[in-house]
Amino acid sequence: NLEKLRQYDSAQKLLESAIAIRAELAGQQSGSYATGLINLGDLAAKRGQAGPAEDYYSRAVALGDTPEIVPALLFLSRHALGVKDYQRAEDLAQHAMTLAPAGSFAARALLIKGNIALAQDLSGMAESYYLQALGAVKPGSPDSAFVMETYAQQIGRASCRERM
Rg of the chain's alpha carbons, rounded to an integer? Predict the structure, then answer.
């Protein structure tokens, strides 16, 4: 609720208190603690603080392979793509797909893989990933709409680049 009200400092303090409790009750190696790190990463990302978000997400991922870390893997993959570290972006997206082989998260990982392919001028491969992403979500769902919108935007950008 504090995030919705854009009271980010208060939300930060509350999440920091919550993660301290998680550490005390479940330990700093627990899935619960990883979830707390992801919550802090989500808040940092919403605030446009990529560095702290990357730190929180990386710490969560380091705690082990659980489905809870998939959003962190996707953020880290998008970040690696943004700095043109294509191999790291690909590895992180593939790791996310291993932990979430179907549904919304799988679709988002496939979209990232498509974006990686486009960044490397592999438009045919990119289109294949976008189509796989579309197949990973329920037709008519908000996830389906997101995939179709992303697909159209990215393929449109690729067409513009090819014409130049």
Answer: 17
Instruction: Give tens-digit pLDDT for 93-106.
Output: 999 999 998 899 99
Distance CA 82, CA 89 (A): 9
Contact (Cβ atoms closer than 8 angstroms) between residue 133 and residue 114: yes
pTM passes above 0.90:
no
Residue 9: is it exposed, middle or buried by C-beta count within 10 angstroms (0-12/13-18/19+)?
Answer: exposed
Distance CA 107, CA 147 (A): 7
* Token reading at 57: 């997400």
User: Which residue matches tokens 């179907």?
Assistant: 102
Classify the phi-psi angles of 100: left when phi > 0, otherwise alpha if psi is within -120 to 50, otherwise beta.
Answer: beta
The DSSP-derived string for 91-129 is HHHHHHHHH--SSHHHHHHHHHHHHHHHHTT-HHHHHHH
How many CA atoms lie within 13 Å of 115's alpha carbon, on the beta-carbon side? 21
Dist. CA 97–CA 163, nearest whole Å: 33
Task: Please answer whether residues 74 and 95 qualify as being in contact, where contact means their C-beta atoms are separated by less than 8 angstroms.
Answer: no
